[in-house]
C-alpha cells in the first residue's frame, strides 16, 4: 500500500486547506488523505470533531471534491448547487446499506458540518439485510427509517416492491436519466457503478479483450490468468444479470467454463484490481472504480479498464435512495434526497468514490467513458433482487 | 464462594428461626414477577418455532445446513473445552502447587486473558496471521508466499481457547488452594509417587473444579458470536445472525431453539455438579500439601507460562498498538471517525444495566439465601437461565417481540438494557447471594429483638454487610455489559453507536487502525473486572 501522510485528526481542516492551496496533490494523499473534514485513519479520540467546529458557509466545493491526478483541472460541476437548496435541519433516520466502506459516511458528515441543525442517525449494515429489515418493520406497522440509501438497486427494488416506499420529490427525479431510476419513481440512482474488466497493460492490449464475457473462456490470452471475487455483492449482481439474460443453465455453463479456463478467487474486487496492476493477473472482473483507486494510489501503474458490450458484463448498477413509507420527516427526507443529487454531492461521488455521477452536469473522472457511451444490457435493475438464487447457483458451480 | 458448609449451617438456622414470613411472601411475589419477565422473551422463541408447519420444521431440522452447523458447533465447543483443560489445569497446578519462580506474576498473567473480549482477540489474530497480515508481511521477503489460513475451525478454536481457558484455570486453582493437603501427604507416606498421588488423590478432589470451569468454557464457546463470525466459521450463532439479517425468521428461530436447548443442557449439568460439590470443590481442609519441586522441569514450565502469556496478552495488545502507530489502509475511512459520544453511550448503558441488576438481584438473592421453601430458590434458578441465553438468540427474540407487541420500545435503549439485565443478572444474584450468606442471622435476630421492623433490620444490619458483594456484582455487570456484542448490534437504536458496535463496524470495513484505541480502552476496562474477581478470590 502507499505510504500515506494521513491528514487526520485534530487539524484536518486546516491542513486540508493548506494542502489544497498548495495544489499538486500527490497520488498517495488522494486516497489516504481525502478522509473528509473529520479526518479518521487513526480513530483516536479527539480525532472526532476535528478540533474546529466548521459552521455553515465554511464548507466549499473543495471539501466535496477529492484530489489527486484524476481530479486535476476539472470543470466546475453543473447542476443544482447546494446553495440553491433549502437548509437541512432536524433529525433524519438513515438506513445505509453497504456504505462503500465508509465513504458515504463522509458525505453525510459533510452535510452535518454544513448544517449544524441537521443530524443523520445512520444504521450501517449489508444492503440486502437492511432491505429485509425495512420490509419487516413496514409489515409490523412502520419502519423507524426515513430514508434508505443503498449501494445496490436490487435491495432498493425489493423495498419498493413490498410497497414500503413513499414518493420522491419531482425535482430529484427529473435530473436523473430514466435508466437509473425506478420506472414508477419509487427509488432514484445517486451514483453509478459499472461492471468492467481491469487488465494489465503490459500483458494484453485492450483490443485483445473480447467484447462479451461469453468469449472469455475461449480466449487463450486469458487462460489461467484471470481473477474474480464471487463473494462480493456486485459480482453476484453481475451473475444475476446473466441469469436474467441467458437463463440459469447457460450461466452455470459459463461459470464452469471460466473455472476450467483457470481463474483465481479473491476476497474483494479491490484486490483483483491490485493483482492486475501487479501483473499477478492479466485481467479480472471488477467494478470500474477499483481500477481508478489503484491508478490513484500508484503512479503509472500498468492497469487499464475495458468494458464489454450489451451483456451482463456491461451491467451498470446504481447506488440509490428511497424515502420510506410512514416517515414523519417527509420534507426533510425529500430535501436530503435533493442534496445528495446536488452538484457538490455528485462531484463528491465522482471524485471521491470514482463512481459515475447521476446528473448530466457532472462528468466522471479521468478518462472514463461518459455513462451514455456505455452499452449496458437492457434489464430492469429492480429485478436484480434475486440474490439468493445466484448464491445457490454459485455454490452449485463450486465457485463459492 | 467457599462457604458451602457454613451455608448449610446458616440455612438450618434460618429455617429454624423462621418467625415472620410476610416479607418473604412479598419478596417471593416480586422475585417471581422479575423472573417471569426475564423468561418471557425465551418463551417467544419456542412459540415462534412452534408456528412453523410440522413438515417444514422437520425439513429445516434435518437439512444439510442444520446438520453441518450442528456438527461445526459441537466440534468448536469440544475443541475449545478440551484445549482449555489442557492449558488451564497445568497452569493452575504450576501456580498453586509448585515452586515455580514469580508465581504471583504468572497467576495474574494466566487469569488476565479473560479480560480480552474474544472478538478483539480474533480480530488481532486475523490481523497477525491472516492473509496479508503481519506474519505474511514478515515472511514474504523470505519467499514464503502462502501461510496456512487462520480462518475456519482451527482459528476459532485457537482464539476462543486462548481467551476462555482462564475459567478452567481459576476454578481449578480455587479447588487446589482449598483442598486438604493432608490427604496427599498421607498418600505420599504410603509410598505413592508424586504422579500416583496426583492421579489417585488430587485429581479426584479437583475434578469437580475442573469440570465447573470446563462447563463455563463450553457455554462460552457455544454462545460466542464474534469469534466464529470473524473466523468465517459457520456455527449456530453466526448462522442465526445471518438468517436474522436476511429475515428468514423461521429458520433463525429453529436454530435459536436448538442453540438454547444445548446451552440449557450445559447449564443443567453445571448446576447439578455445583449442587453435588460437597467437600470436593471446596473442602474444609486448611493444610496445603507441600510444594512440588520442579527441578529440571523449571525451564519448560516457565517457557509454557511465557508462551501462553505471549499469545494471549502480548500478541493482541502488540497488534493493537501496532495499528495505532501504523497509517491507514488503502483508502480512507474518514466516515468511521470515533466520536466521544460512543464512549458515553457504552458507559451509560453499562451503568443502567448494573443499577437495574443490583436492584433486581436483591430480593431474588435474599430469598434464595434465606428462603424457607423449595419455591424460594425458583426465581434464582430462573435468572440463571440468563447465563445460557446466547446474545444472538436474545437479540432475535427482543427485536421481534418489540416489533410485534411493544413497537414504541422497538430500537429503544430500554429494550437493549432489558437484554443486558436478562443476560447478566445472574452475576449480580450470585455475588449478592454469597454475601448475604455471610451474614449471621443472629444479627438480624438481635435487631428484631430490639424492636426493629424486618425491613429496617435489613437496611440497618444486613445491607452494610452485603454492600461489598453488591458492589462486586454491579461492577461485573457493568464490565460485561461494556463488552457485549451481538445483542448490542441487533437492538441498538439507529445512530446509537458504542465501543463495541464501532469496533465491529470498522473491522468489517477493514480499517484496523481505527479500531485500536476503542479496543485498547475496552481491554483496559475489562481488566478492571479482573480486579473485582481477584479481590473476591480469597487467596493468600
Automatic annotation (TrEMBL), chain A:
Sequence ranges of Gly residues compositional bias: 43-54
Keywords, in A-Z order: Signal
PROSITE patterns assigned: TAT (PS51318)
Pfam families tied to this protein: SBP_bac_8
Region feature Disordered, mapped onto this chain: 43-84
Entry-linked InterPro entries: Ferric-bd, SBP, TAT_signal
Keyword Signal: yes
This protein's name: Iron ABC transporter substrate-binding protein
Organism of this sequence: Haloarcula hispanica N601
TrEMBL record, chain B:
Organism classification: Archaea, Methanobacteriati, Methanobacteriota, Stenosarchaea group, Halobacteria
UniProt subcellular location: Cell inner membrane; Cell membrane
PANTHER family, per database record: FE(3+)-TRANSPORT SYSTEM PERMEASE PROTEIN FBPB 2, INNER MEMBRANE ABC TRANSPORTER PERMEASE PROTEIN YDCV
The UniProt record lists the keyword ATP-binding: no
Key words, A-Z: Cell inner membrane, Cell membrane, Membrane, Transmembrane, Transmembrane helix, Transport
Transmembrane segments: 26-47, 67-93, 105-130, 150-170, 209-231, 251-269, 301-324, 344-369, 381-402, 408-425, 461-482, 511-534
Organism of origin: Haloarcula hispanica
Ranges where the ABC transmembrane type-1 domain occurs: 70-270, 343-533
GO biological processes: transmembrane transport
Keyword Cell inner membrane in record: yes
Protein name (database record): Iron ABC transporter permease
Topology in the lipid bilayer: Multi-pass membrane protein
Chief location of this protein within or outside the cell: membrane
Gene3D superfamilies: MetI-like (1.10.3720.10)
Gene Ontology CC: one annotated term: plasma membrane
Protein family membership: Belongs to the binding-protein-dependent transport system permease family.
Pfam assignment, any one: BPD_transp_1
Recorded superkingdom: Archaea
